[in-house]
Design goal:
Distance between the termini: 42 Å
Number of strands: 34
Number of domains: 2
Mean pLDDT: 89
Number of helices: 2
Strand content: 25-35%
């Protein structure tokens, strides 16, 4: 890097740091939480974690890029044998990449394991009404879908390239026996008929294993069964800690990207891109761990995160209480909202980046019960960078209530600093990696035990280092 370029980058970092000093409300009041009043880029306590102004060298990478896998040698998709899947899977079955599998209906996996080898392509939306085709792994079934960076497993629309659109098929559903907080401890998954007994989920096995999804892409999915009753790209009901969800992309879904209904399953290395509603959605007492998550919204998107405990009983337990480390949330339109945390959810967001919400709000804490969680320390946002938020934090108690946020999300977070992300504006070939000299590389905390503790940086991708999203993800166009 030339001296002039190094100076320009350092100047950008310093300019951003200076922005931390003057980011308060015009009246300097950071404690007013009258119903509906926002805390737009609140004043920052200069006791925030110190920043070494002399650090101008790129960080030493702490997470090594793994060796490239050997390609599986799968034939081109057009050269594969077409296999129609028109019946339920009730015996152990293996799908191989010399075939192209076409879902003709809602396919249920019961009392069996479906193994999907690296490089397999599955088409939905080929038979029945639009969007109805889906793959549903029931509480008695399991899935073992292990792709690689060279040969991801792809669930996508059967429509011709250029004609593929959100809602072309239903998506992937995993159902387990881990705890949920609805009355009776079981429920019928959204997006399927309530009378469909195989759509039940919930139990008392926190370690229940729904199976494995590794290096899996899910495209153009989502199905509206009724009002507030939809299938998502990936719908996860009551799966437990034995389930492995790692390196997953959901792209161009009609509804939410990934929604968790209770359970304890975690999520790692996930990209949720350009979905029609929320990127990540949780409710019914979900208590999973998340690390390395990218949410990229386009103009059609609603919220990066929509988080609930339970609407009908906001303080019921087990309470939704996920822990998130190393997340990047990117808005694009004035209608986008970074996160709406509501209906009594708890949880924590750490070492993350919110950017692109100049016309909207980065985080809204909705409902009195959720504000109470924030006040008690059950809902935390820490070591997180907010850049270009129209409004940074809004605390909105229930109608007629005067509950106030009495905590402090000002110190310990960072405001109006450009994270120097490579190219998040592109919808066809985005790059979520911060520059090697980004402030994001010098400001994170050490993640909790059980997480990747070397990820002491902000955002989902280590600045200037291994871009784990490259190679296996794709951002195909959405038909108008």
């Amino acid at each position: 890097m030339t001296n002039s370029n190094r100076k320009m980058l350092l100047a950008g970092v310093i300019a951003g740091l200076l922005g931390v000093v003057g980011c308060g409300d015009d009246d300097g009041d950071t404690t007013d939480s009258t119903p509906g009043v926002d805390m737009n880029t609140p004043d920052v306590d200069m006791n925030t974690p110190d920043v070494d102004m002399g650090m101008v060298d790129p960080r030493t990478c702490t997470i090594d890029e793994p060796a490239a896998p050997t390609p599986a040698g799968c034939p081109a998709v057009g050269d594969r044998t077409v296999v129609d899947v028109d019946g339920d899977i009730d015996a152990d079955t293996t799908w191989t990449c010399d075939n192209l599998y076409v879902l003709q209906d809602q396919i249920f996996v019961t009392d069996a394991t479906l193994t999907i080898e690296a490089g397999v392509v599955v088409h939905g939306g080929a038979g029945g009404d639009e969007g109805e085709n889906a793959l549903v792994v029931t509480t008695t079934g399991s899935i073992d879908a292990v792709g690689t960076a060279a040969d991801p497993i792809v669930f996508t629309s059967a429509a011709a390239e250029g004609d593929q659109a959100p809602g072309d098929w239903g998506g992937v559903v995993l159902l387990g026996l881990a705890p949920i907080n609805v009355s009776g401890g079981t429920n019928a998954i959204e997006g399927l008929p309530p009378t469909e007994g195989r759509g039940q989920y919930g139990g008392d096995d926190a370690a229940h294993d729904c199976g494995t999804l590794n290096y899996v892409r899910i495209e153009y999915a989502g199905f509206l069964f009724g009002t507030d009753n939809e299938l998502n790209g990936l719908t996860v009901g009551a799966c437990g800690t034995g389930t492995d969800l790692d390196f997953i992309q959901v792209h161009a879904g009609k509804d939410d990207g990934i929604e968790f209904f209770g359970g304890t399953v975690g999520l790692k290395h996930a990209v949720i891109s350009q979905v029609g509603d929320d990127g990540l959605d949780w409710d019914e007492g979900w208590q999973g761990d998340v690390q390395f998550l990218v949410i990229q919204q386009d103009e059609a998107g609603d919220r990066g995160i929509e988080a609930d405990n339970l609407g009908s009983d906001q303080d019921i337990t087990p309470r939704s209480m996920p822990t998130i480390w190393n997340m990047t949330v990117i808005g694009r339109a004035a209608a986008n909202e970074g996160s709406r945390l509501r209906e009594g959810t708890g949880g924590s967001i750490n070492n993350s980046i919110y950017t692109g919400y100049a016309g909207g709000t980065c985080i809204t804490v909705d409902n009195t019960s959720t504000i109470n969680q924030a006040n008690s320390g059950g809902l935390v946002v820490a070591n997180t960078l907010f850049n270009g938020c129209g409004t940074t934090f809004t605390f909105a108690p229930d109608d007629g209530d005067t509950a106030e946020f009495t905590g402090d999300w000002n110190s310990g977070n960072f405001f109006d600093i450009d994270p120097l992300l490579a190219d998040v504006g592109s919808l066809s070939a985005p790059d979520f990696t911060p520059d090697a000299l980004s402030f994001a590389g010098r400001s994170g905390a050490t993640p909790d035990a059980g997480f990747e503790t070397a990820a002491d940086f902000l955002g989902a991708v280590e600045p200037g280092c291994w871009n784990w999203t490259a190679g296996w993800t794709a951002y195909p166009a959405i038909a108008e």
